[in-house]
Design brief:
Blueprint (H helix, E strand, L loop, with lengths): L7 H14 L2 H13 L7 H16 L3 E14 L4 E6 L3 E3 L1 E3 L6 E9 L5 H4 L10 E5 L11 H10 L4 E5 L19 E4 L1 H13 L3 E6 L2 E14 L8 E7 L9 H18 L9 E7 L7 H9 L7 E7 L9 E5 L2 H13 L5 E4 L8 H4 L5 E4 L22 H20 L11 H11 L2 H6 L5
Parallel strand pairs: 5-6, 6-7, 7-8, 11-12, 11-13, 13-16, 14-15
Antiparallel strand pairs: 1-10, 2-3, 2-9, 4-8, 5-9, 10-12, 14-16
Helix pairs in contact: 1-7, 1-11, 2-7, 7-11
The structure holds zinc ion.
The site of zinc ion (ZN) has 7 residues, from helix 7.
C-alpha cells in the first residue's frame, strides 16, 4: 500500500526507537504510583494526577491541555467485617464493593456460586434474610454477566447481603455496582470463599457482616489535550485511557499501563503533527471504575462534535499479550484498514473484529463511532487488578513500550492518511441491530450505559 505523500516507513522506525529509548514512561509510572498513589474518582489525588499528566502532555507539545468537569458519586470507604458466628468462629479479610449498602446484618450463608442470575430467583424462601455467596466479576472474553444483576436479583429475592468470591485466590477484589444496591456487597478472596463454601456444604453457617462505606456527590475531571497541524483539522481521532482507580492500590496495571502507553505513543507521534490530516485528541478519563462515568459525560458534553470523531482507540489494562492483539468493535472496514497498516510495517499484531464492552470506548460505540482496544485473546488476565496487589513492581517497561509502539503505528497511518477513513458513523437503527445480534441489551443495561 503506497497511497501516502508522507513517508510513514521511516517515521515508524523513528517512533519505535524513540519509544524504546524514552525514559519518560518509567518515570511517569513511578511518579504517579509514588507521588500520587491511589486516585479514586472525586478525590484530591485525581486532581493531582491530572496536573502531573498535563505537565507531561504539554512537555511534548500537546495543545489545548485542559480539564473538563465530571459530576459523580465519590466513594468514602470504611473497613468491612465478615465474621462467622457458628459453627466455628472466624473472620475473613474483606472489602466492600462501591455503591453497595452499609449496615450490620446477621444471617445464614447460602452458597450460590454455581447459580446464574436468573436461578437466584428460584431459591424461594431460603434466600429471605440470607447472606448469599456468589462468584465475583468473571472475565471470559468479551461478554460477561454484570455483577450488578446478580446482586440486584438477590436483593429483590430478600437476601440481606451478598459475598463475592474473587478471582484472586488470596485477596478480596473490589468491584463497583453499576446499578447501586442497598444491601452490603462484600468481596472475599477465592480461597476464603471456597473454605466458607466447604463449611456451608456440611453445616448451617451463621455470619455477621458489617459495612460502613457510603457515596457522596463530588466533581472530578477528565484531562483533554490535542496534537495536530497548525491549521485545525476537521476530523478527530481519540486516544484515551482512564486515570482513576480504586482506593486499594496505585492501580499500576489497571490503568496506569494505559495512561503511560497513551502518553508515550502521543509523545512519539508529536514530531509528525504537521503532517497530520486529522487531530489526535488525547483523553485521560475519570470514573471508569465506577461505570464509565467520565467517558459517558464526555460523549454527552460533546454531542455536537461526535460526527467529527472518526475513531476511538482506548487503552485499559495493558500487558505483554495486549501488544499482540487489537480488537475492533463494530467496524470491519477499520479492522481491515488497521490490519493492512500494521502488516505494511511487518508487524504481526492479530487484529480482529470482536464485540467488547469492557471500558471507556463503549459510550462512543453506542453512538456509532468505530473503536478499538489492545486485546489479549488467550489471557490469563492479571488477577492483581482491583486488589491491593496492583502495584508498579508488576509492570514491565518493555511491555508498555511494545503496546505504545503498536498504538503509535496504527494511529500514525490514520492521522496522516490524506484519503477518507472507512469509518462512517453508524445510525441509531444500525446500533440497535448490532446490540440485538450480540444479544447484549441486558448486559448493557446492567452496565449502566443504556436506559
Ligand atoms: Zn481499567
Amino acid at each position: 500500500m503506497n497511497r501516502q505523500a508522507f513517508d510513514t516507513y521511516e517515521a515508524n522506525q523513528e517512533m519505535t526507537s524513540a519509544i524504546n529509548a524514552s525514559p519518560h514512561g518509567e518515570g511517569l509510572m513511578k511518579s504517579l504510583c509514588r507521588e500520587v498513589g491511589t486516585r479514586p474518582s472525586g478525590s484530591p489525588a485525581m486532581g493531582q494526577a491530572a496536573e502531573l499528566l498535563a505537565e507531561q502532555w504539554r512537555g511534548f507539545g500537546a495543545a489545548n491541555v485542559h480539564t473538563e468537569p465530571v459530576s459523580l458519586n465519590a466513594w468514602d470507604e470504611a473497613d468491612s467485617r465478615v465474621e462467622i458466628l457458628s459453627p466455628v468462629q472466624r473472620s475473613y479479610t474483606s472489602v466492600q464493593c462501591v455503591y453497595s449498602g452499609s449496615g450490620t446484618v446477621t444471617g445464614q450463608i447460602i452458597d450460590a456460586r454455581d447459580l446464574g442470575s436468573e436461578e437466584l430467583g428460584t431459591l424461594g424462601e431460603d434466600i429471605r434474610g440470607a447472606i448469599v455467596l456468589v462468584k465475583g466479576h468473571e472475565i471470559s472474553g468479551s461478554k460477561f454477566e454484570p455483577m450488578s444483576k446478580k446482586v440486584s436479583l438477590a436483593e429483590k429475592a430478600g437476601a440481606s447481603a451478598v459475598l463475592l468470591a474473587s478471582r484472586h485466590p488470596e485477596l478480596p477484589a473490589i468491584e463497583c455496582l453499576s446499578r447501586p444496591a442497598s444491601i452490603p456487597v462484600i468481596g472475599l478472596s477465592g480461597n476464603d470463599a471456597s473454605e466458607l463454601a466447604a463449611i456451608v456444604g456440611e453445616q448451617t453457617v451463621q455470619a455477621r457482616i458489617r459495612a460502613g462505606g457510603h457515596s457522596r456527590e463530588a466533581t472530578c475531571v477528565n484531562l483533554v489535550g490535542e496534537l495536530g497541524p497548525d491549521k485545525a483539522a476537521d476530523e478527530i481521532i481519540i486516544l484515551s485511557a482512564h486515570l482513576d482507580c480504586y482506593y486499594l492500590a496505585p492501580c499500576a496495571f489497571d490503568n496506569l499501563t494505559g495512561v503511560v502507553a497513551l502518553t508515550e505513543a502521543a509523545r512519539a507521534l508529536a514530531p509528525y503533527k504537521k503532517s497530520f490530516a486529522r487531530t489526535l485528541r488525547i483523553i485521560a478519563y475519570t470514573g471508569e471504575e465506577y461505570g464509565f462515568l467520565g467517558s459517558k459525560e464526555y460523549v454527552r458534553a460533546h454531542a455536537d462534535e461526535l460526527d467529527r470523531i472518526r475513531f476511538v482507540l482506548n487503552l485499559d489494562g495493558l500487558f505483554d499479550d495486549t501488544a499482540r492483539g487489537l480488537a475492533v468493535m463494530w467496524a470491519p472496514q477499520m479492522r481491515d484498514y488497521i490490519d493492512c497498516a500494521l502488516q505494511d510495517l511487518g508487524s504481526d499484531v492479530d487484529v480482529r473484529n470482536l464485540f467488547c464492552m469492557s471500558s471507556d470506548y463503549l459510550p462512543f460505540m453506542l453512538q456509532g463511532i468505530p473503536a478499538a482496544r489492545p486485546a489479549s485473546y488467550i489471557g490469563p488476565y492479571p488477577t492483581c487488578s482491583h486488589t491491593v496487589e496492583d502495584t508498579e513492581d508488576k509492570v514491565l517497561t518493555e511491555s508498555l513500550q511494545a503496546n505504545a509502539i503498536v498504538c503509535a503505528r496504527a494511529l500514525l497511518r490514520m492521522l496522516t492518511d490524506p484519503q477518507p477513513l472507512p469509518s462512517n458513523r453508524k445510525t441509531p437503527q444500525e446500533i440497535r441491530e448490532l446490540i440485538e445480534q450480540e444479544d447484549a441489551q441486558d448486559a448493557l443495561w446492567w452496565a449502566g450505559v443504556i436506559e
